[in-house]
Design goal:
mainly beta, 2 helices, about 625 residues, signal, 52 strands, Dockerin type 1, Cthe_2159
């Protein structure tokens, strides 16, 4: 089980607004979204000062990231640099501020230092007592150290590593460090800085962290350019307080985390901000892991993670860019998550998007319904299963007698939800392919814009939608397919209509679901990528007190995006049911409108309903 997340003061840190630039550029933004953005803009002072429009955000938790003039790459030759020419065992130095002894080159004064050549087993040390700014220009440098960091910033106001165009550089350390005593455990990365560190330019830097981390800053780490290839025995790129990327091409292969912050002190938690650049991250643990907040407002992010794809202990905001999480345990996880823009794709072996404080649910979840009635909650908080044909109803938390048909007990009500936990979707395109829950909130969900496509679980102990509080749908397009044992629709408090269809038999992957109004106008055409037994649909095109037809199979001439077809001509399908949306949320079966069930509904299945199942990791 994951240890509880540090959610101190999270109520005051709710992610509650959207990216202004995303709203301004999205022609489909509703007036309510614009009003919300305007209202928030007038109340928050935490606006990013980064130069790109996509980073102009207005949320209560997106941290102000400021870039100084020297964070950008400039011509270094005009700075009258000291030159350090590495020659295998040592170096030749021309200029002031540095000295070489026994393979160690020590820089003791602020200034610019141009480094080239190869150091077989040595170290660049920055030790500037007056906290000045040191610029290391790696102009074709290869530095190896077998027993400690190859570049070690012991003290400086800020160190800047500049990568000139066309220059290729390699930094590596050994697999075992030698420390002066047992109480010393740093430096512990191939490039290690105790103070602020910036990497800029357009050249290439390869970092091999064979002992522990690749690049570490114990303060703030900013990347404004360059091509970085980092491999690490543990974490790839780490900043204690901040990792902010404005531009660059970054590849990380790490046994631990890919990009990480560690400061968990209340009020000054670490933060990750990705405003641009391209990322290819392969990690044994979380690819992006923040001890505080995390935002993505630009860039192209590709992730293969052994654990979570994107994780933050306080909040995550996705406002722009492209995110492709091709492999993960849980795709995106934090106590508060806002998706306001961009294109995000998630593949997960557990939950796709998970809003959780990491403590696990206080109660066990309902078992899937089966013949003779499904299992409910042992606490009695949920309803008993209904009797199936030839069977008896299963009491809450107990197994019903055998027989076909029957629905399991419902979920606990909103009283069991954590009011501090929320998933907010206001824009963008999100697709989720999850073996666990598709969208999962231990609190509530609010959706007012954007498009969300969920190909959810095939097993009845998870659902395409899973929330403990409410799911208020006021705008946007949502289609979620999956199993039926834990199925949920949006809440009755929603202002946008929704339809939940539950089938008696499993439908095959790729079989189209087509919903059209009485005049044949398309509402949704969707082909789930996995077998499914339920589909929930909500769209601005779907109205209350109107007639519709749900069809199955057939083909569409449109091109699908994550199974969702837009436009084109649909033909060849078979009508499943005609119905009228008499209520805001309509529950359907093949025979027509059915009675709505609060919370989760057990679905038809085999083997007699299943009692409780253990609480799982969130």
């Amino acid at each position: 089980m994951r240890k509880p997340l540090n959610v101190k003061g999270v109520g005051a840190l709710l992610v509650c607004a959207v990216v202004l630039s995303a709203c301004n550029n999205d022609a489909k933004t509703t007036s309510s979204e614009q009003a919300a953005a305007t209202a928030t803009a007038s109340t928050t002072s935490k606006t990013s000062t980064a130069t790109t429009a996509s980073t102009k955000v207005t949320t209560d938790v997106i941290q102000k990231v400021e870039y100084a003039a020297d964070d950008a790459y400039t011509d270094w030759a005009s700075a009258n640099p000291t030159t350090i020419t590495l020659n295998g065992a040592g170096a030749t130095i021309a200029g002031k501020g540095a000295e070489a002894k026994d393979g160690k080159i020590t820089i003791t004064a602020a200034g610019t230092y141009a480094i080239s050549g190869k150091l077989n087993d040595g170290q660049i040390v920055v030790n500037v007592a007056d906290k000045g700014v040191v610029r290391l220009v790696l102009n074709g440098a290869e530095i190896h150290n077998s027993t400690t960091s190859a570049i070690y910033v012991e003290e400086a106001g800020k160190t800047i590593i500049s990568l000139p165009e066309g220059a290729e550089n390699l930094i590596s350390d050994g697999t075992k460090y030698v420390y002066p005593d047992a109480s010393t455990d740093e430096p512990n990365a191939a490039i290690f800085s105790k103070d602020d560190l910036t990497i800029n330019g357009s050249g290439k830097l390869t970092v091999q962290g064979n002992y522990n981390n690749g690049i570490t800053s114990k303060d703030k780490l900013k990347i404004t350019g360059g091509t970085l290839e980092v491999t690490a025995a543990d974490d790839g790129i780490m900043g204690r307080d901040l990792v902010a990327v404005q531009a660059g091409n970054i590849t990380v292969k790490a046994e631990g985390h890919g990009i990480k912050t560690t400061n968990d002190k209340e009020g000054s938690e670490g933060y990750i901000s990705l405003a641009g650049g391209s990322f290819n991250i392969t990690s044994g643990e979380d690819a992006l892991h923040s001890s505080g907040g995390l935002d993505v407002s630009g860039g192209d992010v590709h992730i293969n993670a052994g654990d979570d794809g994107i994780h933050a202990d306080v909040s995550i905001a996705i406002a722009g860019g492209t995110i492709d999480i091709a492999q993960s345990n849980e795709g995106i996880e934090a106590p508060n998550i806002v998706i306001a823009g961009g294109t995000t794709s998630v593949v997960s072996s557990d939950d796709g998007v998970n809003v959780s404080d990491g403590s696990g649910k206080a109660e066990n979840e309902a078992g899937g319904g089966g013949p003779g009635g499904g299992g409910g909650f042992p606490s009695g908080d949920a309803g008993a299963g209904t009797a199936g044909q030839g069977g008896t109803a299963g009491a809450a938390g107990q197994r019903g007698a055998g027989g076909p048909g029957g629905f399991g007990g419902g979920a606990p009500g909103a009283s069991s939800a954590n009011s501090n936990l929320k998933l907010t979707i206001t824009g963008g395109f999100l697709s989720v392919d999850a073996k666990g829950d598709g969208l999962d909130s231990n609190g509530s969900i609010v959706m007012s814009g954007g498009t969300v496509v969920v190909s959810g679980p095939t097993e009845n102990n998870n659902g395409a939608l899973d929330y403990d509080g409410t799911f208020e749908m006021t705008g946007g397009t949502l289609v979620a397919a999956g199993s039926s044992g834990m199925v949920q629709a949006t809440s009755d408090s929603s202002t946008q209509a929704g339809v939940l269809m539950t089938y008696t038999k499993t439908q095959q992957a790729g079989a189209i679901v087509h919903l059209a109004d009485s005049e044949g106008n398309e509402i949704i055409t969707f082909a789930p990528s996995k077998n499914y037994q339920s589909v929930f649909i909500s769209s601005p095109k779907l109205k209350q007190d109107a007639s519709y037809t749900l069809s199955a199979g057939g083909t569409s001439t449109a091109t699908s995006v994550k199974g969702l077809y837009d436009g084109g001509t649909y033909q060849g399908g078979t009508k499943v049911v005609d119905f009228k949306t008499a209520t805001m949320i309509t529950w359907l079966s093949e025979t027509g409108v059915t009675e709505a069930r609060s919370g989760m509904m057990g679905g038809p299945g085999g083997g007699g309903g299943g009692g409780m199942r253990p609480a799982r990791k969130q």
